[in-house]
Specification:
One of its GO terms (molecular function) is oxidoreductase activity. This is Hydroxysteroid 11-beta-dehydrogenase 1-like protein. The structure is a single chain. Helices cover about 50% and strands about 15% of the residues. It has nine helices and six strands, in the order H-E-H-E-H-E-H-E-H-E-H-H-E-H-H. A four-stranded parallel β-sheet has the order 3-4-5-6, sandwiched between helices. Strands 1-2 form a two-stranded parallel ribbon. Helix 3 packs parallel to helix 4 and helix 8 packs across helix 9. By secondary structure, the protein is of the alpha/beta class. Helix 5 links the parallel strand 4 and strand 5.
Amino acid sequence: MAYHYARFGAQIVITARREKVLQQVAEKCLSLGAQKALYVAADMGSESDPDKVVEFALEKLGGLDYLVLNHIGPSPFTMWEGDIEHVRWLMKVNFFSYVQMAWKALDSLEQSKGSLVIVSSLLGKMPSPFVAPYTSTKFALNGFFGALYHELSMKKSNVSISVCTLGLIDTDSAMEKVRGVTSVPAYPAIDAALNIIITGATRQPELFYPWFTHVMTLSKDWFPSFTNYIIQNSYSYIP
């Protein structure tokens, strides 16, 4: 996503845990045409780092036009075995840090008539096996930012909220987890990233990528038994 913004000539601040990787991405962004490409290493599982990232961006850029929240913590692709601490930690990374960063950036986005872009998942619309902790965080995102969308609209806020529902995307980490477990098709990360950017820029409230993810969310309500059958038989599992 940062590379797409760079090609558009944006001023960018990126964050992740590994500083060396961030430095490499920032250098490539500059070579692709970014006006600025800054980075700050941060751990979204900490209490203070989410605020620190937004404060850094505001200080270095002087304000924000877009805040794109796309980070997730690692979670095993397996049946849940009762690890409460992992669920608690993942909720902190995948949900609470989003809420914290959004609140910190809201005043600046209000001034710039900016956009808040939340990257969620089809698993935040319909539950699936092997990802109970992850899907719970995405349901939380959809619930919170869906409610915030209404509240900002009712207050006549200048800030738009876009919630992006993605299917299986062919990132290295996702492909490694599902290899040999499911036949669900994966879609290109580069196209998903561009669709996310366009959705935020055009201030659309929702994105479904690929398109059939929207149909699947509707089928859950229209044909629940059939949908459950499809979900449970999309995976290779022997008890």
